[in-house]
Amino acid sequence: MTDFAATKALFHLPPGVIYLDGNSLGPLPLSAPARMAQVMTDEWGEMLITGWNRGGSDGAGWMAQPTLLGDRVGRLIGAEPSHVVLGDTLSIKVYQALAAALEMTERKVVLSDNGNFPSDLYMAEGLVRSLRQGHELRIVAPEEVEASLTPEIGVLMITEVDYRTGRMHDMVRLTERAHSLGILTIWDLAHSAGAVPVDLARARADFAVGCTYKYLNGGPGAPAFIYVAPRHANRVRPALSGWLGHESPFAFDIDYRPGAGIERMRVGTPPVLALAALEASLDIWDMTTMAEVRARSQELTGRFIAGVEAACPTLTLASPRDPDLRGSQVSFRHAQGYAIMQALIARGVIGDFRAPDILRFGFTPLYIDQGDVDGAVAVLAEVMDGALWDRDEYRTRSRVT
Amino acid sequence: MTDFAATKALFHLPPGVIYLDGNSLGPLPLSAPARMAQVMTDEWGEMLITGWNRGGSDGAGWMAQPTLLGDRVGRLIGAEPSHVVLGDTLSIKVYQALAAALEMTERKVVLSDNGNFPSDLYMAEGLVRSLRQGHELRIVAPEEVEASLTPEIGVLMITEVDYRTGRMHDMVRLTERAHSLGILTIWDLAHSAGAVPVDLARARADFAVGCTYKYLNGGPGAPAFIYVAPRHANRVRPALSGWLGHESPFAFDIDYRPGAGIERMRVGTPPVLALAALEASLDIWDMTTMAEVRARSQELTGRFIAGVEAACPTLTLASPRDPDLRGSQVSFRHAQGYAIMQALIARGVIGDFRAPDILRFGFTPLYIDQGDVDGAVAVLAEVMDGALWDRDEYRTRSRVT
């Protein structure tokens, strides 16, 4: 049994704050600054260039960290060992997966949905346009995805958990349906990894990508990850064929030869410092299982929905009511959503706003408990009852919301 | 006048070590751990998600750091203000620049040379292959580049300073010649930025890319940079069209619209922690000018060549003898180069080896002085005189050399 009070004590949460935005940026693990200081001072400072062979977790070398830590992320998403690697940003990993998938099929249509994170669609748009090979990016509504799987589709590229509402696609069923029609699948796990149980191996997903700065608490700009199914890993031909994906990077050959399996999805020099911060969070993740996290998450999101619906009748639930159909977040709609969120933040309840009218709250069992849920409901009720959001100062948009 | 003794005192250099590998990984600025701790504890820890607007240098927000710090790098490479942005890895930035350049020309040939860093060639190879539009990557010897500039070439993509020998291309002359034939230029400044004066604006370079973990001391895996000439910056159409290059990232529109100027070359979420480490080094760079660094570098490399040639007759200079034709490194050839370098490292003189026979030594005036040069020559002479490299323990290759 996971002791969630113990995991909560391992994060820094500012006094007076109820942080319901760990689905956007996870908080600081208390051990992260010391781990970072160690890597900077003892490894970078003392080992210098030899850190590539001697530094990092277990002294396995900085060069080994992207796959070593990749396996620890892999456990949380049901990946086979040695099939996840960390690096780059999620947008780059989306591009990498889609470019690889398009090389595996003669079909020209990429299917996605308008609940996908926009950057995924932008990257696909940029790739398709650059290729000039007659590809089409077809974007349907999330509920139309299954019916839109037809034999002309080459690749299904979607995000499992909708970033706005928390609505979940059924990964097992859609992947099975896609495969029955000869369609490859790319799953974006940005709002799944550390949020809901994912079993990539069982679902037989072809590719998966995700980020580590949300539920995985890797810090602002933490590296992304990519998974390639074992049956494809030695066959995919990377478009982003960087030297660290080369079979023998330090031979400095002129010609590219892809490395073994997931190694070929590495591109450039690994982000050693960022990986050190992530490692501190993965130590906490090692204390639990996704099944326990999911049970606790459903308890928290259910409690929040019940509390808000009882206290704030003008807010409309935007997330699925069935806990099995939503991720680890709860969203409500209100025409004054932006101002309401600013009023909440001013009172220490931090969620976020997504245009045009979504108030979004993330529930992260590693450090959010029932007391936090009840506290957030009380503050939200106070803001709504007194129309406390109805002030000019809350209506001015900041650059980043 | 730069006080190089003062800048040297701002780096951590392990006792007993003469570090001549700052051209591969720069050493730790002493202020970097504190700056990192501040960003982790005071910004990530306390500001949480609001750090995107409030964190970072000058409180300008984490989101602003890639261009704010980009300008500080830009000063060192002669870029116009607001035309450099940090992010991703150098391999990704090469791909991004080349993809953009290929969209600007109908010509199909990319010219490069076999002195280019292999990852640049690999990335070009991967892009050209993915496009399937009949492009050709033509690789000639470095000395054949100028004569190989013909009207069928669309893009010249080369590294200014050869990573093995320090041989320099003439950026001004080659760019002028290329432009006279309607050829776009992409300059890789990996071994130029912080090593030699670069004046991108005067040379009228079209694109430039580079990394910040070598001479710029940003730490292992520090982010890369990209420059786009002002005359192109609002015209290029990014292939890697990520959300942070979007005109309005937080509108979450379905369609991509490129941001203004260099902003469109951003891709995913910026690497906030890595940028904090880089900032500590840029504070030191603010204490000097590239003209002074170059003068001192030429003095150091000249002194090293003279010393080694006098003391070690079996080593053959691989770098240009004319100081104006070499970067800030000196390379010698020897058939037993690998074992010799291991023997040097065992005695505290750290350089590196590049296959098949190159001993490479970087000279970095911010923290390397004449005493270091003389000390390194003495140790090298001792190793060569006594054939101290001739031991089994120095012949076993490690994974990363």
Summarize, please:
Two copies of one chain form a homodimer. Chain A has 13 helices and 15 strands. Chain A has 401 residues and is α/β, with parallel strands linked by helices.
Task: Present the secondary structure layout.
2 copies of one chain form a homodimer.
Chain A: H1 4-8, E1 11-12, E2 18-19, E3 28-29, H2 32-47, H3 51-54, H4 65-76, E4 84-86, H5 90-103, E5 109-113, H6 118-131, E6 136-140, E7 153-159, H7 171-180, E8 184-188, H8 200-203, E9 207-211, E10 224-228, H9 230-233, H10 272-285, H11 290-311, E11 316-317, E12 329-333, H12 337-346, E13 349-350, E14 352-354, E15 358-362, H13 370-385
Parallel strand pairs in A: 2-13, 5-6, 5-7, 7-8, 8-9
Antiparallel strand pairs in A: 1-3, 4-10, 9-10, 11-12, 12-15, 14-15
